[in-house]
Amino acid sequence: MKKRTFLLATLATAVGLAFQGAVQAASYPSKPIELVVPAAATGASDLSARVFARYAEKRLGKPVVVVRINGAGGYKGSRTVREGQSSGYQVLYTHQGLIANYLTKVAPYSYDGFKVGPAVVEDATLGLYVSGKSGIKSIRELLAKARAEPGKPKATAEYGTLSHFMFLKLQKEQGVTFRLMDTGGDAAKLAALIGGTVDVMARVYSGTEDYLGSGDFVLLGEPTGKRAPNAAEVPTYKEQGVDFTFPPYLWSLFFNQNTPDEIVERWAEVAREVTSDPAYRKEIESLGMAWTYKSPQDSAAAYASIQKTFAELVDRESAVAKQ
User: Fold this and answer.
1) What is the model's pLDDT at position 14?
2) CDD domains from the entry (predicted)?
């Protein structure tokens, strides 16, 4: 009898929660929404979030306000959304930095600490750059130098970021060793390569065009299976005979666990509409990025695959020298 009563109570609770979620979704949104970006101003996350927010609010009928909460490699912003009780009024806009934070013990949770929403932007152009003075012209030449002088070539790899994981994957798969150095964020990386503090840098293509045009930098290719749409003139490593790829940045929406599934699905519908809009696509491309759409299910599957790849890398030596 007690067991039957417990089961009935449990069922009643589940039905009640489902009904409550449906009611919340039916009136959603009833107030402005915060799109939380755990990154600095004017970076790729901030700029693409602002474009997406403008197109999303047209379809939602309420303001979508970009709020930057930076710090601790993105952990501060992601924690704000994860611990919030907003039920869809705080939405996290970020990429697989969530996974990197977890695997490097910056955060106690990964992407699956959230309800995963749709993906709306990607960038597969995290390529390797060397100085124009180095004499190196191809990825094969860089790898040959690294094999000949293990641990000597210096690479700027901000600890716990995707550039860090890229170098770990490159070292593991190509049998080379770089001296990994944390010189700071993107601006500091550019200065380190120009000043000769490092020999190689990993960075996305957008924002490097002037350095390439002047001959200050040489881009050795892109880690994509096929040429990236936002850097179609740049050959892949595979085209050069080097079998190396790396997952693209994948900007997705994330929701705290108390958000009703119906609200997550509402955002999936909005994202489908936004990413089908030619004007949105054009604006994203003007940022040097690529538009995409992945459903919440496909986005979660992509993150699971990336986490599996990254987890296999942190079992190895992953220290980065602080500068």
Assistant:
1) 44
2) PBP2_Bug_TTT
